[in-house]
Specification:
This protein is α/β, with parallel strands linked by helices and 414 residues long. The chain is 44% helix and 12% strand. It has 2 domains: 319 residues, Glycosidases (TIM Barrel, Alpha-Beta Barrel); 56 residues, no CATH class. β9, α8 and β10 form a beta-alpha-beta unit. α3 crosses α4, α10 packs parallel to α11 and α12 packs antiparallel against α13. The longest helix is centred in the first third of the chain and has 31 residues.
Length: 414
């Protein structure tokens, strides 16, 4: 009798231990790849800026072959924008700039970035943008944000015209790019997923036809959740919106409302929130302006962000973090300061994540750290790097009191 009881107890303990092991294993696996069951707020990010002294020259996105950033009036350089970054004309390969951007996003309640990617061919500035994309991915990974990719297939006809690829090889070329993305980025734990599949957007498509994407996505593992501009096309599971500035304000608003109406019939949609649209193209002589959406003292961003969050989508895209040429930036500027990020903070707390609690004052910490970085570099004071790295990490994990105290101590020593 006793021996039979011991056998039963052993079996029960074995089953219980197995259950505990499996539960623990599954919990660890979930944590490594967990996506929050709420709306993700992602900022559309441009990695295409070149500036001195990080680069040999000021790139096209600061000059548009018209403006000269070496010309300075007061504290402001000439730049291809109606607005001016709080930190001036920067370089997208500057690690201090990337850290500043990512820490600002964290403090604003932004979950990650959707990086505007032109592929990786060594043509025009595509290779440079690819290098900067990887630098940004490294930064968001280090500081605890997510990322996804939006691919610009408008590059393809330019590659064909430049003799980089043959027209007959265009689909295969895009397929190889997707293989690269899948092998190098889709599998990263902080890549954004929708229902366990990696999020992948295409701005358009502007070149490939709908059926082409079935071939481009063939044998890609894992298969992405594919979104196209304004409406689902081909194998896309949904559409994402974008500001449409042509026409008067009423026309832009009507187009936005039409997107939401169409999206009711889709399985997924990614609405856009944007503060304004005020491009510099006509002033620079690039081409006619696309049109204008007024800022309205912040009301445009308040309106579009509230609409997007009220739709309760999987993802909201903030358009944009830093397209200075089109004036859609929410990155802090001389003209608007931190206003748009303060509103983002407020709305994320109210409508997305009540546990997110950050103040407008907190948003000033990354700039103070950025200025310490540049002051330290100017003095060639490498000894300060470890202390400044510690400050960045403290901000990243939310220990803002300690970070602020260390920043204050460093500022006193300058």
């Amino acid at each position: 009798m006793w021996s039979q009881l011991r056998i039963i107890i052993s079996l029960v303990l074995c089953v219980f231990s197995t259950f505990i092991f499996l539960f623990a294993f599954s919990s660890v696996a979930l944590c490594a790849d967990e996506q929050p069951p709420r709306t993700l707020v992602l900022a559309h990010y441009m990695p295409w800026y070149e500036s001195q002294p990080q680069s040999p020259r000021y790139g096209w996105h600061w000059t548009m072959n018209h403006f000269d950033p070496t010309e300075i009036s007061g504290t402001r350089r000439q730049a291809a924008s109606h607005y001016y970054p709080l930190i001036g004309c920067y370089d997208s390969n500057d690690k201090d700039v990337l850290e500043y951007h990512v820490l600002l996003m964290k403090l604003a309640g932004i979950d990650g970035v959707i990086i505007d990617w032109y592929g990786k061919d060594n043509y025009l500035d595509y290779a440079l943008n690819h290098r900067n994309t990887q630098a940004m991915i490294d930064c968001v990974t280090r500081l605890g944000l997510r990322f996804a990719i939006i691919y610009e297939d408008q590059t393809v006809p330019k590659l064909i015209k430049g003799g980089v690829i043959a027209k007959a090889d265009a689909i295969q070329h895009a397929h190889e790019l997707l293989l690269f993305v899948a092998q190098n980025w889709f599998k990263q734990p902080n890549y954004v997923r929708v229902e366990q599949r990696p999020l992948f957007l295409v701005f358009g498509p502007q070149y490939f036809q709908d059926d082409d994407w079935k071939t481009i996505f063939a044998d890609i593992e894992p298969q992405p959740m594919y979104f196209t501009l304004q409406r689902p096309r081909g194998p896309a599971v949904g559409g994402f919106s974008w500001p449409l500035p042509a026409g008067a304000a009423a026309e832009s608003e009507a187009k936005l409302q039409a997107f939401y109406q169409r999206a009711k019939d889709w399985r997924f949609s990614i609405p856009a929130a944007y503060p304004r649209f005020h491009d510099i193209y006509a002033d620079a002589g690039v081409h006619d302006s696309w049109g204008r959406i007024e800022d309205r003292d912040g009301e445009t961003y308040r309106h579009t962000l509230r609409m997007a969050l009220d739709a309760h989508p999987k993802v909201v895209q903030l358009v944009t973090w830093n397209d200075w040429g089109e004036g859609t930036q929410i990155e802090p500027s001389v003209e608007f300061g931190y206003r748009d990020l303060e509103l983002t903070q407020k709305f994320v707390h109210q409508f997305v994540n009540p546990e997110f609690k950050r103040s407008p004052e907190d948003l000033r910490l990354p700039l103070r750290l950025f200025e310490l970085r540049k002051a330290s570099a100017a003095k060639n004071a490498n000894a300060n790097a470890a202390r400044l790295n510690k400050i960045a990490q403290l901000i990243s994990v939310g220990d803002l009191h300690s970070a602020a105290q260390l920043i204050h101590d460093e500022e006193l020593q300058r």
